[in-house]
Each structure stands twice: as structure tokens, then as C-alpha cells.
Write a structure and sequence with these properties.
Elements (H helix, E strand, L loop, with lengths): L1 H6 L2 H20 L3 H31 L2
Helix pairs in contact: 2-3
């Protein structure tokens, strides 16, 4: 993971920081930060899986052409 992060360019890191910081602040401000963090991770993983399924379907629909 550290290898991957070190390979990101500065603009990508900055973009990620701008996205993650408000979420981290929100999670820390809740009464149950652990549960909210786990919920946020669950949503993130579902979104990544949906994006991967969509990309896979798109690839396979054009692979036969």
C-alpha cells in the first residue's frame, strides 16, 4: 500500500487529501467513530465493486467487436 501511495503524483495525493479530510473529521466527530468508519468503508468497497463490475461489463461488451 505504501508503495502505491508513493507512486501517486502530488496532484492525486492532494485530491485524495481534500476528499478524505472532511470524511475523517465527520467520523471523528460522531459518538461512535468506529462504527461510522466501518460503515464508510463498507460503502466505499461497495462503490469500488460496482465500478469494477461496470468496467468489466463495458470491456466485455466491446471485446467481441
Amino acid at each position: 500500500m505504501n508503495q502505491m501511495l508513493s507512486n501517486l503524483d502530488c496532484s492525486a495525493r492532494s485530491d485524495l487529501r481534500r476528499m478524505v479530510e472532511p470524511l475523517a473529521n465527520y467520523i471523528c466527530a460522531t459518538d461512535q467513530p468506529r462504527q461510522v468508519l466501518l460503515s464508510a468503508l463498507s460503502v466505499l468497497f461497495r462503490e469500488v465493486e460496482a465500478t469494477n463490475r461496470s468496467a468489466d461489463a463495458h470491456f466485455h461488451s466491446h471485446a467481441g467487436n
